[in-house]
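User: Before I run my own analysis I want an independent prediction to cross-check against. Here's the chain; please return only the structure tokens and, at the end, one sentence I can use as a sanity check.
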Amino acid sequence: MSTQHLSEQEIIRREKLAELNNLGIDAYPAPLYPVNATAAYIKENYKGEENKDQFTDVCLAGRIMSVRDMGKANFAVLQDASGRIQFYIKQDDICPGDDKTLYQTVWKKLIDIGDIIGIRGYVFTTKTGETSVHVKEFTILSKALRPLPIVKEKDGEAFDEVTDPEFRYRQRYADLIVNPGVKDVFIKRTKLINAIRTFLNEHDALEVDTPVLQSIPGGAAARPFSTHHNALDVPMYMRIANELYLKRLIVGGFEWVYEFSRNFRNEGMDRTHNPEFTVLEFYVAYKDYEWMMDTTEQMLEKAAVAVNGQPTVTVGDHEISFKAPYKRISMYDAILEHTGFNISEMDEEGIRSVCQQLGIHADAKWGKGKLIDEIFGGKCESHYIQPTFITDYPVEMSPLTKKHRSKPGLVERFELIVNGKEIANAYSELNDPIDQRDRFEDQVKLMERGDDEAMFIDYDFLRALEYGMPPTSGIGFGIDRLCMLLTNQHSIQDVLLFPMMRPEKDLD
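Assistant: Structure tokens:
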């Protein structure tokens, strides 16, 4: 690599690497290193005189995070996957003979903060009461050629934290190193997914995989990413939802299927939207949306406990309880409650007039369903902080949903709103193939009016329905938004390891 774009520190580190090579020291040795302990294990289990014999030969590996130079001895901090621990390194221990090169030259001059090393020694307690490792030998495992942004710490409190989102999201690897709390968010994310998976498996649900590349982007009203399959010479789309494939499996005879799927929507980016996101969808034969609300409450309560130890979580200024049961209110009643307008009997023009009176943009190409959605999203959604099921949607908003058994013009659907945002969407699924075809054709009419989020007709799905799909209830959860809630994060980028970013310029 040319040095013309390197900083002074980067040049110096490359020079140190060359000196290590000249000394015959491999700065990137074979990966096997005999680790037998972690920082967290030592700090949690070392009891001083009580069990010091169990800690006479510990071997750790990790990254140097700080060094206090005391001449012929240093205190330093090592960070491994479990956390941080102090270690003490002394010249006469490292170099018992006359040759002091390993300490004076390698340790003091050629090792930097950020380097990954292995240390071997015994555990002791310092005069200030801090559990530490007295190093008898160390090994360079990886020389860092780029300096870390340094976070100053004192008495366990961090100063000068790295908070720049551009840096943190683009260089997540560095963010995880210097901001230890970030790792905890993603550990909790895994606990969340594991808790949900355990709940579903315990109820005999079957986890499945469905295609990411699809010939028709179905299952949701959203703009897809498009690509091209060269061998078949056909256009393809990244999936916007996995719904239609999972329902094909219900047709095929499975009674409860689920999938954690990566979905892709070619739409805007903000603190609650990323073009690539994770959704959990599951479908259950012979159940309805009322059963699904009960099941959702049970599952989310257990998930919250698994992540935080209790069903109540702090989100910003709010204490939110995931303990069942949750409030239930119909969409029309929610709109009436927060706008004063009863739109339940209005046609498209009447609802368009309400939008104008409420100051809500009403695009000419939008149909009745989209207009109602805009009213609810703009005037109602933000009021629902505690988990709330918004139920009984207008049929125009739900082309894949079964008509309500007792309320004409509505469908058996709910959305779960928490902290003012939707985190789940569920239906009593439409299984009438003729009705489904009619609603797909209505979507085509919207597409012809210019609605680029209207659904395509999936003729193969219609064929599947014609074989007969049992009465079914289905639901989709936004895992990223749910994770935001349970970890008190305010941006979806904070719960995605590698969120979408604009390409960097002049990256060499």
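Sanity check: The longest helix spans residues 180-202.
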